[in-house]
Amino acid sequence: MIADIKKTDDGYLVKWERNLNHSVDAVWAMLTDNNKLEKWFEELRAGDLRQGGFMKFYVPDVMDEKLEIMEYEPNSVLEFDWFGDVIRFELHPENEGSVLILIEKVKTITEQTKKDLAGWHVCLDVIIALLDGEPIQRDDEWKYWFEQYTEKLEVFE
């Protein structure tokens, strides 16, 4: 399901919500355990996991950035800087599983925004596939969702 996108006073709010048949602990590990994190987002790493700590975005010989963690509540909230925008993961227990919410607070829509939104969408799908033990074709999925988000963002341009 495509993200909900709303115009706000200071930019845009993009929200994805996924109901998962997996515990909060299992999903939280996907977000914070580097051995699991690298399977769905190769360049992102957990650094100092606390409010005021950091996540890392690392591309060998290209980039090694610390992304400040603005809010951190174990098994509940991970919010960090995303190159001037904000990424926020929220986890809520529900029945025998959990609800994973991803929010991106975007200041300005750019060509990179379209790529990022498609990328985050696919990341969520990959997290679910990994937890479910199912394969996923990232490249094909990314191309499809890039077209969907490009079209959806046209109303804001």
Structural account:
The protein is α+β, with helices and mostly antiparallel strands and 157 residues long. It has one domain: 2-Layer Sandwich (Alpha-D-Glucose-1,6-Bisphosphate, Chain A, domain 4), CATH 3.30.530.20. 34% of the residues lie in helices and 40% in strands. The protein is built from four helices and eight strands, in the order ββααββββββαα. The protein has an eight-stranded antiparallel beta sheet. Strand 4 and strand 5 form a beta hairpin. The longest helix has 22 residues. The radius of gyration is 15 Å and the shape is globular. The two termini are 22 Å apart. The mean pLDDT is 95.
Sum this structure up briefly.
This protein has helices at 24-32, 34-40, 111-132, 138-153, and strands at 4-8, 11-20, 44-48, 54-59, 63-73, 77-82, 85-94, 97-106. It is of the alpha+beta class.
As residue ranges, the low-confidence spans are none
Largest sheet: 8 strands, antiparallel
CATH architecture: 2-Layer Sandwich
Report strand %.
Answer: 35-45%
Mass-distribution shape: globular
CATH class: Alpha Beta
The named CATH superfamily: START domain
Compile the SSE list and pairings.
Layout: E1 4-8, E2 11-20, H1 24-32, H2 34-40, E3 44-48, E4 54-59, E5 63-73, E6 77-82, E7 85-94, E8 97-106, H3 111-132, H4 138-153
Antiparallel strand pairs: 1-2, 2-8, 3-4, 4-5, 5-6, 6-7, 7-8
Helix pairs in contact: 1-2, 3-4
